[in-house]
């Protein structure tokens, strides 16, 4: 959270601290994806899933028009129940997802070499 405080536009965007619990496989204090290697993002997702109640409490008290999310795929269902719009935000290009999630590559969660990544998918 402290890493985000230095960002611009803080008068337009509000960040709320969450207590992200420790999960085996995560470094102590890991809160954001850049704190952990890609291969451990599933552990971060598991930890972040445990913050759902905190997020719900914040949303109920704020009643925002919308919420931006990237990692917590449970946010849209929660937001919809509360009458809040959710907006998926990703800094990654769609091609990134194509390369990593293509089932023919069987590559989810595995580190790939540049040579492997430049190969066109089957089909």
Can you describe what's shown?
It is a single chain. The chain has 123 residues and is mainly α. The chain folds into two domains: 2-91, no CATH class; 92-123, no CATH class. Helix content is 35%, strand content 7%. It has a two-stranded parallel sheet. Helix 4 links the parallel strand 1 and strand 2 (85-88). It is globular and about 50 Å long. The model has no long low-confidence stretch (mean pLDDT 81).
List the keywords.
2 domains, 6 helices, single chain, mainly alpha, UDP-glycosyltransferase
Give a brief outline of the structure:
By secondary structure, the chain is mainly alpha-helical.
Number of domains: 2
Structural class: mainly alpha
The description of the largest β-sheet is: 2 strands, parallel
Runs in which pLDDT lies below 50 for 5 or more consecutive residues are none
Strand content: 5-15%
